[in-house]
Amino acid sequence: MGILDRSFNVVKLARAETLPHQSLAMNSVDLASLLCSRLCHDLMSPVGALNNGIELLADETDPEMREKCLELLAESARASANKLKFFRLAFGAGGGFGEEIDTREAEVALEGLFGPERRIELGWMVADNKLPKQAVKLLLNLALLAGDALVRGGRLDVGAERSEGRIEIAVRGEGPRILLDPALRETLETGGDGTIEPRAAAAWLAYNLVADAGGSLRLSEAGSEALLIGADLPLA
């Protein structure tokens, strides 16, 4: 029994299907624009807070208020750095030009992104020290989607393992309120209709990583007690 079967035994799932390898309407420029838009959207808040904090610090003379400004600046700088570390691995060329990535690096990136301020508890169930780069990218993008769906916090479990020439990935999100946007669900299941919004960047990339590898994707039904996303990738 693989990690997918162990993780998905509590809810009804859509049938696992090998995704069709197809050429969608988006070209490389569109994809670059999409990922840049998502990155800019996520960095706008912490970088804006940095700018505001510097302006406040310049005009503030009270020692106690200056200390609070410095704390806010440190928090915003940490959030910006954490997001950049995550997106470097999930969207960029993180890990260099090697075929595999250290999974500990991926774990640290997720811990930084879904830290205490997001009220999400992370469970990491990846035994391998290294996994193929595309598998790590897929794992991070699926975790991003599930984590974003936990709008009031909760628990996010992420697992992956090699099994008989394949890599199985399972992401499970539980919380008081789970909301996976229908557009993201459709993109995960079908690749979308060719017009993708920046917020769907992770879903579009995940779909195509699975399709390009000739793998399959599984997704729990809307309204299930937990959000579960799984992928099965053949090893090259």
Detailed description of the structure:
49% of the residues lie in helices and 19% in strands. The two termini are 22 Å apart. The protein contains 7 helices and 8 strands; from the N terminus they run αβααβαββαββααββ. The strands form 2 sheets. The protein has a 6-stranded mixed sheet. Strands 2-4 form a two-stranded antiparallel sheet. 36% of the residues are buried. The chain is an alpha+beta fold and 236 residues long. β7 (216-219) and β8 (227-234) form a beta hairpin.
Strand order of the largest sheet: 1-7-8-6-5-3
| Cα-to-Cα separation, first versus last residue | 22 Å
State the assembly state of the protein chains.
single chain
What is the CATH superfamily label? Histidine kinase-like ATPase, C-terminal domain
- Structural class call reads alpha+beta
CATH topology, which one? Heat Shock Protein 90
Quote the average pLDDT.
Answer: 84
**Unreliable spans:** none
Gyration radius over CA: 19 Å
- The CATH architecture designation is 2-Layer Sandwich
Number of strands: 8
Strand percent estimate: 15-25%
Tally of discrete structural domains: 1
The total count of helices amounts to 7
| Run of helices and strands | HEHHEHEEHEEHHEE
Which outline best applies? globular
Largest sheet: 6 strands, mixed
CATH class: Alpha Beta
